[in-house]
């Protein structure tokens, strides 16, 4: 789409913050007003639009895309999104450990055991861990606690969490990032223990590396979106 506007700015409104293009409020694909919960998120989204040249490139506006999703999708189906995110706890990455080699087992324990301890201390949810590929059933009471925790997140927070959890394969990592226990870099690193080990043994595949770079960029954007949406 060609850039049709000259001036971009964010502005406070009674019900939040909006981004204006030549004085007109941005509308989502579903024609809802792009109303945002914080001035910092408004400023950041305005910066994305201001940075466009002759053509607007949605791929270069991840914060805008997350806001669209929150307003048009997640806000209308929060219960479904909570269920989708919560299911990751049933087969969480940090609960499934390798049988070997010992070096990988040690790396997984170093990265993931502290997260399970944090989860139990912070939320009172004790998830079981196992080795090998056979699935285990997590304690129903722990999954119930985690679902209740997810329900405390608003549409903007759930949107970011959905991205973080989907990319990392871990509800635990997502909740740790949401709580500020992990920053974006740490969340990425602990989610890549297995991948990094295989790359060290077998070498880096160019296509896999490119896909990983895209995933990391998306995770970084989700964490940034979460932080900006909460900023006072």
CATH superfamily of the largest domain: ATP12 ATPase
Helical coverage, percent range: 55-70%
Number of domains: 2
Sheet-strand content, in percent, reads 5-15%
CATH architect. name of the largest domain: Orthogonal Bundle
- Secondary-structure element sequence? EEEHHHEHEHHHHHH
User: Based on helices, strands and strand pairing, what is the structural class?
Assistant: mainly alpha
Low-pLDDT stretches: none
Q: Largest sheet, if any?
A: 3 strands, antiparallel
Radius of gyration: 20 Å
Strand order of the largest sheet: 1-2-3
Distance between the first and last residues' Cα: 33 Å
Strand and helix map with partners:
Blueprint (H helix, E strand, L loop, with lengths): L7 E6 L2 E6 L2 E2 L13 H12 L11 H13 L3 H10 L8 E2 L4 H22 L6 E2 L8 H12 L3 H14 L2 H8 L5 H8 L1 H10 L3 H25 L2
Parallel strand pairs: 4-5
Antiparallel strand pairs: 1-2, 2-3
Description:
The chain is mainly α and 232 residues long. It has two domains: 8-60, 2-Layer Sandwich (ATP12-like); 78-230, ATP12 ATPase (ATP12-like fold). 58% of the residues lie in helices and 8% in strands. The chain is built from ten helices and five strands; from the N terminus they run βββαααβαβαααααα. The chain has helices at 39-50, 62-74, 78-87, 102-123, 140-151, 155-168, 171-178, 184-191, 193-202, 206-230, and strands at 8-13, 16-21, 24-25, 96-97, 130-131. It has a three-stranded antiparallel sheet with strand order 1-2-3. β4 (96-97), α4 (102-123) and β5 (130-131) form a beta-alpha-beta unit. The longest helix is centred in the C-terminal third of the chain and has 25 residues, at 206-230. The two termini are 33 Å apart.
């Amino acid at each position: 789409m060609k850039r049709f506007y000259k001036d971009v700015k964010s502005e406070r409104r009674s019900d939040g913050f909006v981004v204006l293009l030549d004085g007109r409020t941005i509308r989502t694909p579903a024609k809802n007003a792009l109303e945002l919960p914080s001035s910092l998120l408004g400023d950041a989204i305005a910066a994305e639009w201001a940075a466009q040249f002759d053509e607007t490139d949605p791929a270069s506006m991840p914060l805008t895309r997350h806001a669209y999703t929150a307003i048009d999708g997640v806000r209308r189906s929060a219960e479904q999104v909570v269920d989708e995110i919560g299911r990751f706890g049933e087969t969480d990455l940090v609960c499934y450990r390798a049988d070997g080699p010992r070096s990988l087992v040690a790396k997984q324990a170093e990265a993931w055991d502290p997260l399970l301890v944090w989860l139990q201390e912070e939320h009172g949810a004790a998830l079981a861990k196992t080795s090998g590929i056979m699935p285990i059933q997590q304690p129903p009471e722990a999954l119930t606690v985690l679902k209740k925790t997810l329900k405390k997140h608003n549409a903007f927070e759930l949107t970011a969490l959905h991205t973080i959890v989907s990319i990392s394969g871990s509800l635990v990592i997502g909740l740790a990032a949401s709580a500020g226990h992990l920053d974006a870099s740490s969340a990425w690193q602990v989610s890549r223990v297995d991948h990094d080990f295989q790359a060290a043994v077998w070498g880096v595949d160019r296509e896999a590396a490119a896909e990983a770079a895209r995933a990391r960029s998306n995770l970084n954007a989700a964490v940034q979106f979460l932080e900006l949406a909460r900023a006072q």
